[in-house]
Design brief:
Helices cover about 40% and strands about 25% of the residues. The protein is an alpha+beta fold and about 290 residues long.
């Protein structure tokens, strides 16, 4: 794959020296708006809960829980919070000899709406082999990012001895997870597109006790056909998929220090016992063991 004028070559996977420049975890109210602006490094904006809209150049992306936006230096962008949202933001460089963070704040500049709408979104290309280029797209959804993102935030905030090297190690792992996620990603089949409304509903409200009939109705199909199609596309039935999404959110709440009683109630469980049983079935660990590890 050759590079076009809009392609930005990040580097070669095996030669990356990533550095975290800034990491934050925050909860914001609806209608908060950042930008348009230009930053000196790359940023990963990851939504833990809620919904946000990110304009990257001339492209607008809506992020649901478990999805992130990626944009780089000197690319006009803006972020609009659509619902009460909890997010993690990581500023970083793919290649920087020193692991010591360089805070981006003093090099962030305002842009204009015309520059935002009139600029073409860059394509960030990473060399996987001598002959293969991989695009890291503006929106990504990779399972299992929550714990490593939370660790990056904690290491950045606490600044314990050796934290810069540990941040580099964690960021390297994060980038590899994103790369592998893109390599395993395939264009959605016709069947996958048929269940998108149900998937979106579960991602937005995993705490709701969705009935299979409700989800089937969102997609416009009979329950039996919908259930068969859902299993074919996800490998799970709708109930199992809902549980896996609940446990993903539960991991975040556990790492944030919330009590199990509160988490169970927030995620729609009738009891802590039922929540703990689901959690162990999904992860192989009890909630307490997960926190300790």
């Amino acid at each position: 794959m050759g590079l076009s004028n809009r392609d930005v070559h990040i580097g070669t996977l095996e030669e990356l020296l990533p550095t975290v420049n800034f990491a934050s975890h925050a909860e914001v109210e609806p209608s908060v708006y950042w930008g348009p602006r230009l930053i000196p490094d790359f940023q990963l904006f990851y939504v833990l809960s809620g919904q946000a809209e990110v304009a990257v150049g001339d492209e607008v992306i809506t992020l649901a829980p478990g999805e992130c936006a990626l944009y780089g230096p000197h690319c006009p962008h803006a972020i609009r919070v659509l619902q009460e949202t909890v997010f993690i933001g990581i500023h970083f460089n793919f290649i920087q000899p020193s692991p010591v963070p360089v805070h981006p704040a003093f090099s962030i500049h305002t842009s204009t709406a015309d520059q935002l709408q009139g600029s073409e979104r860059p394509r960030y290309m990473l060399s996987i082999t001598e002959d293969e280029q991989l695009e890291l797209p503006p929106r990504m959804a990779v399972q299992g990012l929550d714990p490593i993102l939370m660790r990056i935030v904690r290491e950045y905030m606490n600044e314990q001895p050796g934290y810069t090297m540990l941040l580099r190690s964690l960021l390297t792992e994060l980038i590899l997870m994103l790369v592998r996620g893109q390599l395993s990603d395939r264009p959605k089949s016709v069947e996958q597109s048929k269940i998108e409304p149900a998937l979106h509903a579960i991602h937005m409200e995993p705490e709701r006790n969705w009935a299979v009939g409700e989800l089937a109705a969102l997609c416009g199909y009979h329950v039996i056909y919908f259930s068969s199609l859902f299993r074919k596309c996800t490998g799970e039935n709708p109930k199992q998929y809902l549980i896996s999404q609940r446990i993903r959110k539960a991991k975040y709440y556990l790492l944030s220090g919330e009590k199990m009683e509160i988490i169970a109630e927030r995620l729609g469980y009738a009891s802590v016992h039922y929540f703990s049983r689901n959690f162990k079935e999904e992860t192989g660990l009890t909630p307490t063991e997960f926190k300790q590890q």
